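Bench notes, afternoon.
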Amino acid sequence: MKPDDIEAILRQLENGEISEDELSDNEDDIDYYSSQRDLQMELEDEDDVVLKFTQELRTLNVYLANQISE
């Protein structure tokens, strides 16, 4: 982003022509966390999802291995 683009966006924000919400339509934007704790909590939630999926996958693998061996 060029300095002129940044200045134009800041001017529009100051004039009330756009809101900060309108600037974050891009899904590729960097997530903002108000504190390190907020980020840590989200990462732990993601870890919990991965752990649960891994446990379910292992259970399924054991079940399938038992079915094949019978």
